[in-house]
User: Which sequence fits this backbone?
């Protein structure tokens, strides 16, 4: 029982990070119908940004409390990563908007390769690491055994929950969110009603990247080490999460992310750690056979 | 066809809001609109009718920027009577618009569709309903007020922190939306998804949504298509209240003669891309050319009929 609970906590932690990245995929897909393959690498970039910022801030203001430093890192990393994503959209995707459907997709793959190589050149090919930032946690006695709920895990789950709530509020309640939902349904009509479609799409990329940066900061807190190729696997997993939850659906992305995280962790715990990715992707394949539009996705019904 | 016949039926020249001159639209070898000229008078309902394939929707698409006309001028004049010199000056310059009075002069054939909507304030609906079906009825009307609401809300940043200006702007937008819902009797369904409304209500909601953008000219493409007689009557009522209550000029394409004849102040009849008649409903109803176009009478019979009328 205690082992199960422990894995549950670990799975939720991992799943939150996937969910945060998955939202970027799903929002962009929802609004322009494109898979932003560079998004995983934007996440990797954000980990580097966070790492550098953390080192900078702690060395400049030595006496600063860790909590304050982390909040600063989070805010600045969100802003800088958003700026990157904005620039990527402006340079690599917007000029291709009127083009055929595959063009921006290929451009996204190109962007992904560019980001990986850029970071490798600028930061070097070796792992960058920082000493553990937050240590310790709660030991909870359950039955005969103990489970550990580390402060890091609490931080990750809480941050994810708070930011998801904030973004949910933006999408549901603000005029920007309304414009986004309108563009999702009928971009032409939205532009005729006076919505600046280009700006709305830019802001969607910005929001997705900001959430990826949150995931990036949490990744840094959790693992403390990053490498230029670290964007690929989390990116693919988050994309899988978005598809599993129903691409285009915000709650779907979160549920998909949590599910992928849980599957991975439980499979590693009870079966074989080597096959955890196989398990995650198999579940995706099986789900899509029976629910082609994902868990919360709306089926694409064409009226005749 | 004689020029004299073209102008009968319309009273003294009214101030136009839209002037279409020598509009031609060619798709490869197909001449969809051929040298068409007509005026839409300010504060009136003008209907564009004609048999299927006459080029009505093409004219609409040229006016609203979906097509770039092959040649011709489409001038919107929201600035009042002093527009003519501005139009002449604009035509000779590379410009697209100029302020006149409280409105302006816009050469629509030079503008993109979203600019025509946002700057020239021409709103349109389509033959098929294009509501945001996943959003609520109220949200559909608020999103159409996005432009100024977004400015007032500081691009959502202020909205997030709950600033007063944002809440006031939002409240104003809701107030306008609710007033329109009240007007079409859908106040009670404000929070339902727009897709859940009956067809006729969706039609009227779409028209009201277009009105929420504050247009000077509202273009409706077959607003009565698929409506039952009761729904058509409700539509008539709505369109008349828009004309009389808001002073918005309307241009509509319609096949339903019960709508056209009852509410139009002015009718333009197209056939094969050319204007065959232009006048008041009473005039159009009795024009042998129109009757021939709709009933498919032979040319000689038209001549006979004309001779009869003139004789």
Assistant:
């Amino acid at each position: 029982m205690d082992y199960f609970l422990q894995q549950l906590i670990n799975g939720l932690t991992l799943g939150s990070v996937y969910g945060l990245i998955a939202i970027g995929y799903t929002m962009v897909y929802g609004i322009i119908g494109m898979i932003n393959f560079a998004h995983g690498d934007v996440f990797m970039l954000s980990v580097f940004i966070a790492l550098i910022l953390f080192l900078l801030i702690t060395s400049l203001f030595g006496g600063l409390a860790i909590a304050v430093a982390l909040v600063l890192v989070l805010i600045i990393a969100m802003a800088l990563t958003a700026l990157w994503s904005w620039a990527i959209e402006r340079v690599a995707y917007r000029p291709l908007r009127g083009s055929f459907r595959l063009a921006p997709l290929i451009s996204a793959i190109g962007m992904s390769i560019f980001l990986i190589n850029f970071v490798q050149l600028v930061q070097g090919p070796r792992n960058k690491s920082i000493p553990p930032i937050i240590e310790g946690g709660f030991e909870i006695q359950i039955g005969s055994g103990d489970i550990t709920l580390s402060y890091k895990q609490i931080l990750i789950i809480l941050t994810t929950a708070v930011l998801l709530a904030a973004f949910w509020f933006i999408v549901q309640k603000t005029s920007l969110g309304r414009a986004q939902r309108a563009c999702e349904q009928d971009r032409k009509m939205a532009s005729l009603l006076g919505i600046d479609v280009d700006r709305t799409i830019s802001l969607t990329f910005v929001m997705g990247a900001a959430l990826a940066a949150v995931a990036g900061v949490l990744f840094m807190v959790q693992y403390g080490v990053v490498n230029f190729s670290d964007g690929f696997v989390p990116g693919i997993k988050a994309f899988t999460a978005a598809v599993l939850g129903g691409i285009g659906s915000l709650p779907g992305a979160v549920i998909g992310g949590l599910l992928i995280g849980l599957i991975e962790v439980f499979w590693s715990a009870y079966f074989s750690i080597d096959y955890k990715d196989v398990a995650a992707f198999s579940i995706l394949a099986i789900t899509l056979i029976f629910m082609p539009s994902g868990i919360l996705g709306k089926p694409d019904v064409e009226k005749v | 066809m004689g020029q004299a016949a073209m102008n009968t039926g319309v009273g003294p020249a009214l101030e136009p809001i839209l002037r279409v001159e020598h509009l031609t639209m060619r798709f490869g070898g197909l001449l969809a609109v051929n040298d068409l000229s007509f005026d839409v008078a300010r504060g009136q309902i003008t209907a564009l009718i004609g048999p299927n394939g006459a080029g009505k929707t093409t004219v609409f698409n040229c006016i609203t920027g979906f097509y770039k006309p092959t040649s011709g001028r489409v001038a919107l004049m929201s600035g009042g009577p002093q527009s003519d010199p501005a139009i002449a000056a604009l035509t000779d310059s590379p410009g697209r618009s100029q302020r006149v009075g409280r409105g302006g002069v816009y050469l629509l054939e030079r503008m993109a569709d979203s600019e025509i909507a946002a700057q020239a304030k021409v709103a349109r609906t389509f033959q098929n309903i294009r509501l945001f079906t996943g959003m609520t009825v109220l949200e559909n009307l608020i999103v159409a007020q996005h432009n100024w609401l977004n400015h007032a809300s500081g691009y959502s940043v202020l909205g997030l922190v709950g600033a007063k200006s944002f809440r006031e702007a939002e409240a104003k937008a809701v107030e306008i939306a609710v007033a329109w819902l009240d007007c079409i009797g859908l106040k009670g369904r404000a929070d339902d998804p727009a897709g859940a409304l009956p067809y006729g209500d969706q039609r009227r909601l779409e028209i009201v949504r277009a009105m929420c953008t504050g247009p000077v000219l509202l273009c409706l493409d077959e607003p009565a298509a698929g409506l039952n007689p009761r729904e058509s009557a409700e539509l008539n009522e709505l369109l008349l209240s828009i004309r009389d209550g808001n002073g918005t000029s309307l241009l509509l394409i319609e096949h339903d003669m019960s709508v056209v004849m009852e509410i139009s102040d002015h009718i333009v009849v197209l056939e094969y891309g050319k204007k065959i008649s232009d006048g008041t409903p009473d005039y159009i109803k009795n024009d042998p050319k129109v009757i021939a176009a709709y009933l498919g009478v032979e040319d000689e019979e038209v001549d006979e009929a004309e001779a009869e009328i003139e004789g």
Summary: The first strand of chain B starts at residue 16 and ends at 27. Residues 130-215 of chain B form a domain with the Rossmann fold fold (CATH 3.40.50.300). Chain B is about 40% helix and 25% strand.
